[in-house]
Structure formats: C-alpha cells, structure tokens
Amino acid sequence: MAKRWLKKTGIILFWLLLWQLVSIALNQPIILTGPLEVARALFVLLPQEEFWLTVAMSLLKITCGFCLALLAGFSLGALAWKFRWLKELLAPVMSLVRAIPVASFVILALIWAGSKNLSILISFLVAAPVIYVQTLAGLGSTDQKLLEMAQVFRMPLPGKCRYIYWAALKPHLMEGIRITMGLCWKSGVAAEVIGVPDHSIGEKLYMAKIYLSTDELLAWTLVVILLSALFERICLRLMGAERKKA
C-alpha cells in the first residue's frame, strides 16, 4: 500500500514539476501559469465568504440535477425492462438526448428555463440517459436460474429485489455513477459559463476569462475537479456501505 501511494505521489509530482517548468519557459502568465501561482490564487480564494457561497450553490444545483437523473433514469429503466412497449417508446427519445451536443442543450434550456436553474436541467439531461441504459443492462443480466430457484422456494418479492435483482444491477449502476458524475460537473459548469447565473462557479470562470486571470481560472477548475472526485467517491462509498450492511 505504501509503495503504491509513493508511486502515485511521484507521478503527480513529476507532472506538477513539468507544468511549472513549462510555465517558466513560456514566461507568459496569461497563456499558462504554474501550479505555484494556481495554489496561491486558491489560497487567496479560500478565506472569502463569496468562494464558499459559490461552491455551495453550484454543488447544490449539480447534485440536485444528478439525484433527479438517478431517480428518473433508474425508475424509467426498471419500468422499461418490465414493459417492452415502454422500452420501445423511450428508445428514440433516449437516443436523441444522448446524441444532441451539450452546447445545443444549454442554449435551448437557457431560452426555456433561464439561467438560474440551468445547471440542474443540463446535469439531469446528461446523466439520466446513462443511468437509464445502465439500469436496463443490469436488470437484463439477472441470472434466470436464480429467479427459477427463488420461484421454487417461494421467495417473496422484497427478497428477490434485494438478493437477485440488486446483485445484478449494482455493478452497472455504479459504473453509470462513475460515468455521469464527471459528465454532470463538466456539463453543469459549462452551462453556468454560458448562462452566467449569480454565485456560480461558471460565473467565476467567465469573469476570470474576461479579466485574463489565468491563475484564478485554473484555481476554479481545480475546485471543480476536486468536487467531482469527492462527490463520486461519496456516492460509491454509500453504495459500498449498503452492500456491507446487507
């Protein structure tokens, strides 16, 4: 474990050093600032109340969009697996939503819903089809022999759901979460950059671009990466905890 941790740390330090050397060689802070300047900008932001309000608002909205997508994608996937006619009915809609570029979604949503809750809607639209497909795949991989055995022993429906269906569904659902968490943050923040709602990370990125503050722009980008990784880990840990408890 210690050896692997040292290896990862060494790799990270190598790329940070290379980044710093490139920024020094360019000597153009507007084009590229080094990790030391980015860290300095982040430490300037951390004590500010506006920083934490901005993080909280973006986190709340993108998390809300993800949770709604998880609920809708799982529910529709389960119903579509049960009722074939619903699966066929939803197929073109899901394909269309997955094929439309995020930028088009953002512009249309900005016209329909305004900028205030834009990141909620975009995060939802990006994540829901993936969760839907993963739910269908997971339930479709259920072992039929286990279902036959459950029928022979007259296992009640809650037992089937917990020990058979959930066991087949869980790996696919976790993979869906891994995929969609990054997508939600990327698309949600991109929507904020276009809509520029007040107290949002996208607004701060846009303003950093306007004032050519590359170090602050990269500092906010680092915040997005850390929030995405943290939220993904929390979700997967919660599902892992549920498994251990079961």
Describe this structure as you would to a colleague.
By secondary structure, this protein is mainly alpha-helical. It has helices at residues 2-26, 35-45, 49-82, 84-99, 102-113, 118-140, 144-152, 157-195, 201-210, 214-245. It is globular, with a radius of gyration of 22 Å. Helix 9 (201-210) runs antiparallel to helix 10 (214-245). The protein has ten helices and no strands. 86% of the residues lie in helices and 0% in strands. The longest helix has 39 residues, at 157-195.
What integer is the average pLDDT? 84
Q: Characterize the main sheet.
A: none
Broad shape:
globular
Low-confidence stretches: 241-246
User: How many beta strands in the DSSP annotation?
Assistant: 0
Order of helices and strands: HHHHHHHHHH
Descriptors:
single chain; 246 residues; mainly alpha; 10 helices; globular; disordered C terminus
Summarize the structure.
This protein is mostly helical. The protein contains 10 helices and no strands.
Draw up the topology in text.
Elements (H helix, E strand, L loop, with lengths): L1 H25 L8 H11 L3 H34 L1 H16 L2 H12 L4 H23 L3 H9 L4 H39 L5 H10 L3 H32 L1
